[in-house]
């Protein structure tokens, strides 16, 4: 045994400080995008049953929620709207006084340095819950593009720093980029939900946003979870149309896709740690089956290690608090 030669990997694991010195992947508070759900009315704060700790909030409460996030060092949020009125043409999505537009104005007025991202989709605003115009049970792609472009422009006019279209219509980045440029918003970037799978992990979000489809599913426009090469085609199309960020949604079951995009495209990669991923961890933690903090940190670190530059996560405030405590 005295003459054996073999690698001593454990030498670099002996103490906490030594492990920290050679750690390859780090989480930073500025990595996180914090999502909020803004609802019509005043003094309303409804916890989402399937997402403990996540709320539908009227604007007065949302401002305080954002303030808490800013105080923790979070630099960006994304706004999802829950309107009172829905119809077949999603008119509240692009209304000047729509819930998202009002929320953006109020938040930017209160926190001018905060990066405010607008989710740009129609499903929260349509009476049928689909992400586009529907005729005879079919989602009409090109007619939908016109409404998405109107929505993006209205959000930019309200003060959104980034437009984040999540609808997965063909050509949506090109349509939005053209509309923004024509209205003088040349410098407003697009954070494209470039690779969005038709996933079973979205259920709790649909509770929060009241956006479940009233018929059928979204498999004609969201991607098949079995496909990998399709992700390249979707991402490449969005890059060629002018996307400034590429998002992969969901994150946890698609870490290979995050790495693929990181290896092939020179744009910031965003991982969406979606509602189902959040709900599973919360449920297990509430039952005492896991250590929530340890699991969340490991999970988000895996997304960074896979190649994500930014992580959209409902855990953003929790993790920001944990990182602050560690310092």
TrEMBL record:
<keyword id="KW-0456">Lyase</keyword>
<feature type="binding site">
    <location>
        <position position="275"/>
    </location>
    <ligand>
        <name>5-aminolevulinate 2</name>
    </ligand>
</feature>
<protein>
    <recommendedName>
        <fullName>Delta-aminolevulinic acid dehydratase</fullName>
        <ecNumber>4.2.1.24</ecNumber>
    </recommendedName>
</protein>
<feature type="binding site">
    <location>
        <position position="218"/>
    </location>
    <ligand>
        <name>5-aminolevulinate 1</name>
    </ligand>
</feature>
<comment type="subunit">
    <text>Homooctamer.</text>
</comment>
<dbReference type="Pfam" id="PF00490">
    <property type="entry name" value="ALAD"/>
</dbReference>
<comment type="pathway">
    <text>Porphyrin-containing compound metabolism; protoporphyrin-IX biosynthesis; coproporphyrinogen-III from 5-aminolevulinate: step 1/4.</text>
</comment>
<dbReference type="InterPro" id="IPR013785">
    <property type="entry name" value="Aldolase_TIM"/>
</dbReference>
<dbReference type="InterPro" id="IPR001731">
    <property type="entry name" value="ALAD"/>
</dbReference>
<keyword id="KW-0862">Zinc</keyword>
<feature type="binding site">
    <location>
        <position position="234"/>
    </location>
    <ligand>
        <name>Mg(2+)</name>
    </ligand>
</feature>
<dbReference type="GO" id="GO:0008270">
    <property type="term" value="F:zinc ion binding"/>
</dbReference>
<dbReference type="GO" id="GO:0006783">
    <property type="term" value="P:heme biosynthetic process"/>
</dbReference>
<dbReference type="GO" id="GO:0004655">
    <property type="term" value="F:porphobilinogen synthase activity"/>
</dbReference>
<feature type="binding site">
    <location>
        <position position="123"/>
    </location>
    <ligand>
        <name>Zn(2+)</name>
    </ligand>
</feature>
<keyword id="KW-0627">Porphyrin biosynthesis</keyword>
<feature type="active site" description="Schiff-base intermediate with substrate">
    <location>
        <position position="196"/>
    </location>
</feature>
<feature type="binding site">
    <location>
        <position position="121"/>
    </location>
    <ligand>
        <name>Zn(2+)</name>
    </ligand>
</feature>
<feature type="active site" description="Schiff-base intermediate with substrate">
    <location>
        <position position="249"/>
    </location>
</feature>
<feature type="binding site">
    <location>
        <position position="314"/>
    </location>
    <ligand>
        <name>5-aminolevulinate 2</name>
    </ligand>
</feature>
<keyword id="KW-0460">Magnesium</keyword>
<keyword id="KW-0350">Heme biosynthesis</keyword>
<dbReference type="InterPro" id="IPR030656">
    <property type="entry name" value="ALAD_AS"/>
</dbReference>
<feature type="binding site">
    <location>
        <position position="131"/>
    </location>
    <ligand>
        <name>Zn(2+)</name>
    </ligand>
</feature>
<comment type="similarity">
    <text>Belongs to the ALAD family.</text>
</comment>
<keyword id="KW-0479">Metal-binding</keyword>
<comment type="function">
    <text>Catalyzes an early step in the biosynthesis of tetrapyrroles. Binds two molecules of 5-aminolevulinate per subunit, each at a distinct site, and catalyzes their condensation to form porphobilinogen.</text>
</comment>
<feature type="binding site">
    <location>
        <position position="206"/>
    </location>
    <ligand>
        <name>5-aminolevulinate 1</name>
    </ligand>
</feature>
<dbReference type="GO" id="GO:0005829">
    <property type="term" value="C:cytosol"/>
</dbReference>
């Amino acid at each position: 045994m005295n003459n054996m030669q073999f690698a001593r990997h454990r030498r670099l694991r002996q103490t906490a400080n030594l492990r920290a010195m050679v750690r390859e992947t780090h989480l930073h508070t500025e990595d996180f995008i914090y999502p909020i759900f803004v609802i019509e009315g005043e003094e309303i704060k409804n916890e989402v049953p399937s997402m403990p700790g996540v709320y539908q909030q009227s604007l007065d409460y949302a401002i305080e929620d954002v303030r808490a996030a800013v105080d923790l060092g979070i630099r960006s949020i994304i706004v999802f709207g829950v309107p009172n009125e829905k119809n077949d043409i999603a008119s509240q999505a692009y209304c000047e006084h729509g819930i998202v537009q009002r929320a953006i104005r109020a938040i930017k007025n209160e926190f001018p340095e905060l990066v405010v991202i607008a989710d740009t989709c129609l499903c929260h605003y349509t009476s049928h819950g689909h992400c586009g115009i529907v005729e005879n049970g079919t989602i009409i792609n090109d007619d939908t593009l016109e409404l998405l472009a109107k929505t993006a422009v209205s959000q930019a006019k309200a003060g959104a720093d980034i437009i984040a279209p999540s609808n997965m219509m063909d050509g949506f980045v090109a349509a939005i980029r053209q509309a923004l440029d024509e209205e003088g918003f040349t410098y407003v970037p697009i954070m494209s939900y470039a690779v969005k799978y038709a996933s079973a992990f979205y259920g709790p979000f649909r509770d929060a946003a009241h956006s479940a489809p009233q018929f059928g599913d979204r498999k004609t426009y969201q991607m098949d979870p079995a496909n990998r090469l399709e992700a390249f085609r979707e991402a490449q199309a969005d890059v060629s149309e002018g996307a400034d960020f590429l998002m992969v949604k969901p994150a946890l079951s698609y870490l290979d896709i995050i790495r693929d995009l990181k290896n092939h495209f020179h744009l910031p990669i965003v991982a969406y740690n979606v509602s189902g991923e959040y709900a599973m961890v919360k449920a297990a933690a509430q039952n005492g089956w896991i250590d929530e903090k340890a699991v969340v940190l490991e999970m988000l670190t895996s997304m960074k290690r896979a190649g994500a530059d930014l992580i959209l996560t409902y855990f953003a405030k929790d993790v920001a608090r944990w990182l602050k405590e560690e310092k």
